[in-house]
Every structure is written in structure tokens, then in C-alpha cells.
Amino acid sequence: MMVVGIDPGTATTGYGIVEDKGYGLEAITYGVVTTAPSLPLEQRLAQLFDALSVLIQRFKPESAAVEQLFFQRNVRTAIAVGQARGVALLALAKAGLSVGEYSPLEVKQAVTGYGGADKNQVQHMVRLLLNLPAVPQPDDAADALAVAICHLHHLRTAQQWTT
Fold this sequence. Notes:
The protein has 5 helices and 5 strands, in the order E-E-E-H-E-H-E-H-H-H. By secondary structure, the chain is an alpha/beta fold. The relative contact order is 0.22.
């Protein structure tokens, strides 16, 4: 099972594709989609949609997961992240992928076993679970890999309940 995880943002959207090999997890690719702040918002969102669509077409994941928006004190930031989330969900839906949505607490719980884990703990566990030589950079890519790992754990648990 191959899954794409997305950590949405207007300026930087992290992505990570993880495959469950049966004997362990493997990072297929990860990185970020960035957009220039000088561009109008609609162009930035179009760039994000196009980049995610190309990524999905190239790697053909079987499922997807997007981090849910958590409460932001800065309303402007929350709206921008929400718009990027919407574009990511649209790209995934247009590709025909089923999508899981997880809160930051659920992602931390799945990756570290503790919902209150800090960013460094999550990144370290992502590195260990994927047998990577270093913590994935930038942070948004590591977060997206964590979202993908969370989704794979969720799918594996759901499968165990149906068999």
C-alpha cells in the first residue's frame, strides 16, 4: 500500500509518499511545494494544485491523508492554510483517491505513541520508522511523512478489524 501524506500551507506544502512493504515502511519520496509570496493567491493555489496533481500522477499512491487544520490564533494564517487544504483535497479527489484526515494530536500519537510529543520527537521517529539516514528536511516534508505513516497505521488497524 502506497500513501501520500500532505501537510498543507500556502507558502509551503509538505508532501511525503510512504509505502508499506509488509515488513516495514519505506519513504518513496518527500519534499515541499513552495509558492512565491509575490504572486496573487489564486496563482499560488493553482501552482499548488498543479504540483500535487503531477506528484500523484507520477507515483500513483493508492490512498492519501491530509493534516487537519488546528486552531490558529492568527485568523489570516488559518484561512490561508484552509485554502491550501481545500486545494490539496481537490487534487486528491480529482485523482480518485480516498482521503484520511488527521489532527496533529492523532499524527503524533500514531508516530510516537504520545499525542503531546514535540516536533523534534516526531521528526526523530519518522527518521527511525522509515530507516532514513537523517531527519527529513524541511520540517514540512517530515510532517507530511508523519501524516502518511499515521494513515498507514489507521488503514492497517482498520484491516485487522475486518479480517
